[in-house]
Protein backbone atom coordinates (compact mmCIF):
# COMPACT_ATOMS: atom_id res chain seq x y z
CA UNK A 1 0.00 0.00 0.00
CA UNK A 2 0.78 3.68 -0.07
CA UNK A 3 2.84 5.21 2.77
CA UNK A 4 4.01 8.80 3.22
CA UNK A 5 5.56 10.77 6.08
CA UNK A 6 5.62 14.56 6.38
CA UNK A 7 8.03 16.19 8.85
CA UNK A 8 6.56 19.29 10.46
CA UNK A 9 7.69 22.24 12.55
CA UNK A 10 5.59 25.00 13.99
CA UNK A 11 4.34 27.09 16.87
CA UNK A 12 1.17 28.26 18.53
CA UNK A 13 -0.21 31.59 19.72
CA UNK A 14 0.98 31.04 23.32
CA UNK A 15 4.65 30.78 22.27
CA UNK A 16 5.17 27.02 22.27
CA UNK A 17 7.18 25.49 19.43
CA UNK A 18 6.74 22.00 18.02
CA UNK A 19 8.34 19.38 15.82
CA UNK A 20 6.46 16.39 14.56
CA UNK A 21 5.44 13.99 11.85
CA UNK A 22 2.31 12.92 10.08
CA UNK A 23 2.49 9.40 8.66
CA UNK A 24 -0.26 8.01 6.44
CA UNK A 25 -0.62 4.46 5.15
CA UNK A 26 -3.38 2.70 3.21
CA UNK A 27 -4.79 -0.43 4.83
CA UNK A 28 -6.57 -3.48 3.33
CA UNK A 29 -10.13 -2.82 2.14
CA UNK A 30 -12.82 -3.11 4.82
CA UNK A 31 -16.26 -1.61 5.52
CA UNK A 32 -17.31 1.57 7.33
CA UNK A 33 -20.89 2.59 8.10
CA UNK A 34 -21.85 -0.56 6.18
CA UNK A 35 -20.11 0.60 2.97
CA UNK A 36 -17.03 -1.02 1.33
CA UNK A 37 -14.15 1.30 2.18
CA UNK A 38 -10.44 2.02 1.81
CA UNK A 39 -8.97 2.76 5.25
CA UNK A 40 -6.17 5.31 5.54
CA UNK A 41 -4.26 5.02 8.83
CA UNK A 42 -2.81 8.33 10.05
CA UNK A 43 -0.50 8.91 12.99
CA UNK A 44 0.17 12.47 14.14
CA UNK A 45 3.06 12.79 16.56
CA UNK A 46 4.18 16.15 17.97
CA UNK A 47 6.71 17.19 20.59
CA UNK A 48 6.85 20.57 22.33
CA UNK A 49 10.51 21.49 21.93
CA UNK A 50 11.05 23.25 25.28
CA UNK A 51 9.42 20.75 27.65
CA UNK A 52 9.70 17.59 25.54
CA UNK A 53 6.02 16.86 26.11
CA UNK A 54 4.66 14.77 23.28
CA UNK A 55 1.22 14.12 21.82
CA UNK A 56 0.32 11.19 19.59
CA UNK A 57 -3.04 10.71 17.89
CA UNK A 58 -3.86 7.79 15.65
CA UNK A 59 -6.90 7.63 13.44
CA UNK A 60 -8.26 5.71 10.52
CA UNK A 61 -10.08 7.68 7.82
CA UNK A 62 -12.37 5.78 5.46
CA UNK A 63 -13.00 6.49 1.77
CA UNK A 64 -15.28 4.80 -0.74
CA UNK A 65 -13.56 2.28 -3.01
CA UNK A 66 -14.59 3.64 -6.43
CA UNK A 67 -12.07 6.25 -7.65
CA UNK A 68 -14.58 7.88 -10.02
CA UNK A 69 -17.01 8.43 -7.13
CA UNK A 70 -14.66 8.90 -4.14
CA UNK A 71 -16.36 9.98 -0.91
CA UNK A 72 -14.85 10.56 2.51
CA UNK A 73 -16.98 8.47 4.88
CA UNK A 74 -15.60 9.41 8.29
CA UNK A 75 -13.11 8.18 10.87
CA UNK A 76 -12.31 6.39 14.12
CA UNK A 77 -9.54 7.88 16.27
CA UNK A 78 -7.45 6.80 19.25
CA UNK A 79 -9.49 9.03 21.57
CA UNK A 80 -12.57 6.76 21.03
CA UNK A 81 -14.24 9.35 18.81
CA UNK A 82 -15.84 7.88 15.74
CA UNK A 83 -18.17 8.92 12.97
CA UNK A 84 -21.62 7.43 13.45
CA UNK A 85 -23.40 9.10 10.53
CA UNK A 86 -22.36 11.04 7.47
CA UNK A 87 -23.80 13.01 4.58
CA UNK A 88 -21.14 13.03 1.87
CA UNK A 89 -20.43 14.32 -1.61
CA UNK A 90 -18.01 12.92 -4.18
CA UNK A 91 -14.47 14.34 -4.17
CA UNK A 92 -13.42 14.94 -7.80
CA UNK A 93 -10.42 13.10 -9.26
CA UNK A 94 -9.23 16.32 -10.92
CA UNK A 95 -9.81 20.00 -10.21
CA UNK A 96 -8.66 23.35 -11.53
CA UNK A 97 -7.82 26.55 -9.71
CA UNK A 98 -11.03 28.19 -8.51
CA UNK A 99 -12.93 24.90 -8.08
CA UNK A 100 -14.48 24.23 -4.67
CA UNK A 101 -16.96 21.87 -3.09
CA UNK A 102 -18.41 20.17 -0.06
CA UNK A 103 -16.81 17.01 1.30
CA UNK A 104 -19.52 16.28 3.84
CA UNK A 105 -20.91 16.61 7.35
CA UNK A 106 -19.92 13.97 9.91
CA UNK A 107 -21.61 13.38 13.26
CA UNK A 108 -19.54 11.60 15.90
CA UNK A 109 -20.56 9.45 18.86
CA UNK A 110 -20.53 12.51 21.17
CA UNK A 111 -22.94 14.48 18.94
CA UNK A 112 -20.32 16.84 17.49
CA UNK A 113 -20.58 17.69 13.79
CA UNK A 114 -17.52 18.11 11.55
CA UNK A 115 -18.41 20.05 8.37
CA UNK A 116 -15.74 19.73 5.66
CA UNK A 117 -15.16 21.45 2.33
CA UNK A 118 -12.36 21.85 -0.20
CA UNK A 119 -11.09 24.37 -2.72
CA UNK A 120 -8.23 24.70 -5.22
CA UNK A 121 -6.26 27.98 -4.95
CA UNK A 122 -3.53 29.43 -7.15
CA UNK A 123 -0.11 29.02 -5.48
CA UNK A 124 1.76 30.91 -8.24
CA UNK A 125 4.44 29.71 -10.66
CA UNK A 126 2.14 27.02 -12.12
CA UNK A 127 1.46 25.38 -8.74
CA UNK A 128 -1.81 24.97 -6.86
CA UNK A 129 -2.88 24.81 -3.22
CA UNK A 130 -5.34 22.03 -2.38
CA UNK A 131 -7.14 23.42 0.68
CA UNK A 132 -9.33 21.37 3.02
CA UNK A 133 -11.39 23.23 5.61
CA UNK A 134 -13.02 21.71 8.69
CA UNK A 135 -15.32 23.26 11.28
CA UNK A 136 -16.38 21.20 14.30
CA UNK A 137 -19.44 22.23 16.30
CA UNK A 138 -20.69 20.73 19.55
CA UNK A 139 -24.22 19.56 20.36
CA UNK A 140 -25.26 23.19 20.98
CA UNK A 141 -23.96 24.32 17.59
CA UNK A 142 -20.98 26.21 19.06
CA UNK A 143 -17.69 26.01 17.13
CA UNK A 144 -15.10 24.02 19.12
CA UNK A 145 -12.37 23.64 16.49
CA UNK A 146 -11.46 24.76 12.99
CA UNK A 147 -8.66 23.56 10.78
CA UNK A 148 -7.25 24.51 7.41
CA UNK A 149 -4.98 22.01 5.67
CA UNK A 150 -3.12 23.42 2.65
CA UNK A 151 -1.14 21.13 0.36
CA UNK A 152 0.93 22.80 -2.37
CA UNK A 153 1.01 20.53 -5.44
CA UNK A 154 2.41 20.53 -8.96
CA UNK A 155 0.36 19.82 -12.13
CA UNK A 156 0.71 16.06 -11.54
CA UNK A 157 -0.54 16.27 -7.94
CA UNK A 158 2.88 15.74 -6.38
CA UNK A 159 3.12 17.28 -2.91
CA UNK A 160 5.61 20.16 -2.61
CA UNK A 161 4.73 21.46 0.86
CA UNK A 162 2.10 21.18 3.57
CA UNK A 163 0.61 23.53 6.17
CA UNK A 164 -1.89 22.76 8.92
CA UNK A 165 -3.54 25.52 10.97
CA UNK A 166 -5.73 24.37 13.88
CA UNK A 167 -7.77 26.65 16.14
CA UNK A 168 -9.09 25.29 19.45
CA UNK A 169 -11.97 27.49 20.63
CA UNK A 170 -11.93 26.04 24.17
CA UNK A 171 -8.35 27.25 24.77
CA UNK A 172 -8.40 30.11 22.21
CA UNK A 173 -5.09 28.84 20.83
CA UNK A 174 -4.08 28.55 17.18
CA UNK A 175 -1.27 26.21 16.12
CA UNK A 176 0.46 26.39 12.72
CA UNK A 177 2.59 23.51 11.46
CA UNK A 178 4.45 23.38 8.15
CA UNK A 179 6.54 20.85 6.30
CA UNK A 180 7.33 19.06 3.06
What would you note in describing this structure?
The chain has 180 residues and is mostly beta strands. It contains no helices and 13 strands. It has strands spanning 3-12, 17-26, 30-32, 35-48, 54-64, 72-77, 83-88, 100-108, 113-124, 127-137, 143-153, 159-168, 173-179. Strands 1, 2, 3, 4, 5, 6, 7, 8, 9, 10, 11, 12 and 13 form a 13-stranded antiparallel sheet that branches. A hairpin with a 4-residue loop joins β1 and β2. The protein is globular. It starts with a strand and ends with a strand.
Radius of gyration: 16 Å
Q: What structural class do helix, strand and pairing data support?
A: mainly beta
Give the overall pLDDT as a whole number.
95
Instruction: Determine the number of helices (DSSP H or I, runs of at least 4 residues).
Output: 0
List low-pLDDT spans: none
Number of strands: 13
Short recap of the structure:
This protein is mainly β and 180 residues long. Helices cover 0% and strands 67% of the residues. The mean pLDDT is 95.
Give the topology, please:
Layout: E1 3-12, E2 17-26, E3 30-32, E4 35-48, E5 54-64, E6 72-77, E7 83-88, E8 100-108, E9 113-124, E10 127-137, E11 143-153, E12 159-168, E13 173-179
Antiparallel strand pairs: 1-2, 1-13, 2-4, 3-4, 4-5, 5-6, 7-8, 8-9, 9-10, 10-11, 11-12, 12-13
Task: Name the features.
180 residues, 13 strands, mainly beta
Amino acid sequence: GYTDTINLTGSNTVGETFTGTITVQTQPESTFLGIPAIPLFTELQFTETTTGASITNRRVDYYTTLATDRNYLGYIDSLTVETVSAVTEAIPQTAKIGDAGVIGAYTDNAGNVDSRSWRMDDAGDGFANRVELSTVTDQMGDVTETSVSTTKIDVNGNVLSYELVIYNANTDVTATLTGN
